[in-house]
Structures are given as structure tokens and as C-alpha cells.
Amino acid sequence: MKEQPSNNFEKKPEHIPTEEEVLFLFKRILEAMGKGSFTEIRKLEDGEGLYLWEIAISEKNEGGHREYLYTRKGDYEGRGLPGGSAPETAIHMTCFDLDGIPYTGYPVRKLRDGRWIEIS
């Protein structure tokens, strides 16, 4: 009797990035921009580790600033934690003008199968 292929795929546990891993990604983003430092806006953790980290980078030459937001996939609002929910683990960028009004934003990195993918 021929063995039938299984449609059941083992689900790998989600990779949970460490604070050091996220900091490394932030530093790579800074280097690509020719910047050396950032201001931390907020950093939130739960029992599994870092789930939200928000930083700002000054744009002195262009005016305004950029914010980068790391979020780990999960429903934090449903668990009574600040920060809302995230359908995927990613880093998003938002640009703000001199008045603090956001004018554009998009994902810059997404975690896929345990690897960070650069989004252009």
C-alpha cells in the first residue's frame, strides 16, 4: 500500500526577537541614514520579552523627524496591555513634519520564517 502524503505541516514556534536583535536592526537603519543616535519614545515588554519599541530620529536638515516602531506579532490590547495589536512582527517608519503631523509611513522590515526581510 502506497503511503499518502500528509497535509499536516508541523508549525514551528514563532521566533521572538530579543532586545539586542531589534537594537541591531535600529542601528543598521541609522547607519543607512547617516545618523548616529536616536531618542527612545517607549519600550514595552511582557512575559515573552520585548513586544513594542518606538524610537525617534531627528531630521535637522529636512525638518521634522522620523519614528521607527518595532512590534511583535500578538494581541496586546486583548490581554490588557498597552500598545494595541500587531498582525505580524515588523518595524514601521513614520515621517512627521515640523508641526508633528505624520505625512507618510510604511514597513521597513518584516520577520518572515525567522528571518528579517528588508521592505523597500
Question: Would you kindly provide a written description of the structure presented here, covering whatever features stand out?
Answer:
Strand 2 and strand 3 form a beta hairpin. This protein has one helix at residues 19-33, and strands at 39-46, 49-58, 65-71, 74-75, 85-86, 90-96, 102-112, 115-118. With 120 residues, the chain is mainly beta. Strands 1-2-3-6-7-8 form a six-stranded antiparallel beta sheet, with helices on one face. It has one domain.
Provide a brief overview of the structure.
This protein has 120 residues and is mainly beta. It contains 1 helix and 8 strands, in the order H-E-E-E-E-E-E-E-E.
Reconstruct the topology from this structure.
Elements: H1 19-33, E1 39-46, E2 49-58, E3 65-71, E4 74-75, E5 85-86, E6 90-96, E7 102-112, E8 115-118
What attributes characterize this protein structure?
single chain, mainly beta, about 10% helix, about 120 residues, 6-stranded antiparallel beta sheet, about 40% strand, two-stranded antiparallel ribbon
